[in-house]
Automatic annotation (TrEMBL):
Keywords of the record: Ubiquinone
Pfam families the record matches: Epimerase
The organism's taxonomic lineage, starting at the top: Eukaryota, Viridiplantae, Streptophyta, Embryophyta, Tracheophyta
Originating species: Pyrus ussuriensis x Pyrus communis
CDD domains: NDUFA9_like_SDR_a
Gene3D superfamilies linked to this entry: NAD(P)-binding Rossmann-like Domain (3.40.50.720)
Molecular function GO labels: protein-containing complex binding
Domain NAD-dependent epimerase/dehydratase: start-end pairs: 69-280
Protein's UniProt name: NADH dehydrogenase [ubiquinone] 1 alpha subcomplex subunit 9
GO (cellular component) term, any one: mitochondrion
Length: 399
């Protein structure tokens, strides 16, 4: 037994000497994983949250140090923003007010525990504070282009943004606040939607002058509310109504580019703080040209019915008149949304001297190609079936 104990003791001493030699080469500390280690101290920049990667190589399983409360994350733009934030290792707080299914698709976008759904009520200030409690970034995507019996333009687009800015200011630990507005927002616009968006910008900047305002144009993507509606209407009824003569100009933008712009503004060294960016696509379309592109993609013969502005307004007026006067909810407007029709009376283009994608170091995609490839689902018989552009020859031209 003594011989065995001596042999074990010699082995332990040998291992201890080897460990000490390793320590001399690679210094180790008992507090390496402790919170008091300088490596794990807060690296939040005083002018933004740029360069916050604290652990890992910057991928999905890393820890970027960003804890973002994304209000409106269950919407169209929200799913693309959550995906880009989660891809860089950020923790995303997902406030939702609907059912448990409303956020289910977002949980797969981040690593385990990085996508955190939180039930909240936009009219309950305490529930909003609970969402923001551990966040250092607040991004407001809340917005609606039509009214309902429960939520007006003023409450959704203006009051909620102002409330988020006020709570963020009281929070004290919010390093960045990003407000997503809308291109064409103006206090003099005939559209109430655009007027309330302009009022929200003013309210946010009055509370947080260092907030970043982003004004995206009409967004196009797999779940968009313009090309999908047009294609569905054209397939169902065989024609597409064009408000006016279809000559109104605008700059539709790919939704992934808008999400990328938000992340770029979030990751910079603070140069985007207190600034307003107008995010329009690289091409200018008229309503008629965009409809032609839609028909070309779904491989259908273009058929239009041009609806004069006064008639289009009259068709959209009954819903606004009856909205709060009937004891039941009315259908959501699709093509004839009176407020959108008012907004389409003037061109919606990026201002000449405005800050754009280029100032964020990004180049937006052109629409033709991948950004509208989702429209092939509307081709009759499948993606490879239907008439092509070269086959659209008038029978009168045949010999």
């Amino acid at each position: 037994m003594q011989a065995v104990s001596k042999r074990v003791g010699r082995q332990y001493l040998t291992q201890s000497s080897s460990i000490s030699s390793l320590k001399s080469i690679y210094p180790l500390s008992d507090h390496y994983y402790g919170a008091d280690r300088p490596k794990y101290g807060s690296t939040l920049a005083t002018k933004g949250v740029g360069h916050l990667v604290r652990k890992g190589t910057g991928g999905r399983s890393s820890v970027s140090g960003i804890v973002a409360a994304v209000f409106g994350s269950t919407g169209f733009l929200g799913r693309y923003l959550v995906q880009q934030l989660a891809k860089m290792g950020s923790q995303v707080l997902v406030p939702f007010r609907g059912s448990e299914d409303s956020h289910r698709h977002l949980k797969l976008m981040g690593d385990l525990g990085q996508i955190v759904p939180m039930k909240y009520n936009p009219r309950d200030e305490d529930s909003i504070k609970a969402v923001m409690a551990k966040a250092n970034v607040v991004i407001n995507l809340i917005g609606r282009d039509y009214e309902t019996r429960n939520f007006s333009f003023e409450e959704v687009n203006h009051s909620m943004a102002q409330q988020l800015a006020t709570i963020s200011k009281e929070h004290g630990g919010i390093m960045r606040f990003i407000q997503v507005s809308c291109l064409g927002a103006s206090s003099s616009s005939p559209s109430r939607f655009l007027r309330t968006k302009a009022a929200a910008e003013e309210a946010v900047l009055s509370e947080l002058p260092e907030a970043t305002i982003l004004r995206p144009a009409v967004m196009v993507g797999t779940e968009d509310r313009i090309l999908n509606r047009w294609a569905f209407f054209a397939k169902k009824y065989g024609f597409l109504p064009l408000v006016g003569d279809g000559s109104t100009k605008f700059q539709p933008v790919y939704v992934v580019d808008v999400a990328g712009a938000i992340v770029a503004a979030l990751k910079d060294d603070g140069t985007s703080m207190g600034k307003i960016y107008e995010l329009g696509g690289p091409e200018v379309f008229t309503m008629h040209q965009l409809a032609e592109l839609m028909f070309d993609t779904i491989r259908e013969w273009p058929r239009y019915v041009k609806v004069p502005l006064p008639i289009a307004k009259a068709m959209g007026a009954p819903r606004e008149i009856l909205l709060n006067k009937v004891p039941f909810p009315l259908p959501n407007p699709e093509i004839f949304n009176r407020d959108q029709i008012l907004a389409q009376e003037t061109d919606t283009l990026v201002s000449e001297n405005a800050l754009t994608f280029n100032d964020l170091g990004l180049v937006p995609h052109k629409l033709k190609g991948y950004p509208i490839e989702f429209l092939i689902q509307f081709r009759k018989g499948g993606p490879n079936y239907g008439s092509t552009v070269s086959e659209r020859v008038s029978p009168d031209a045949w010999p």
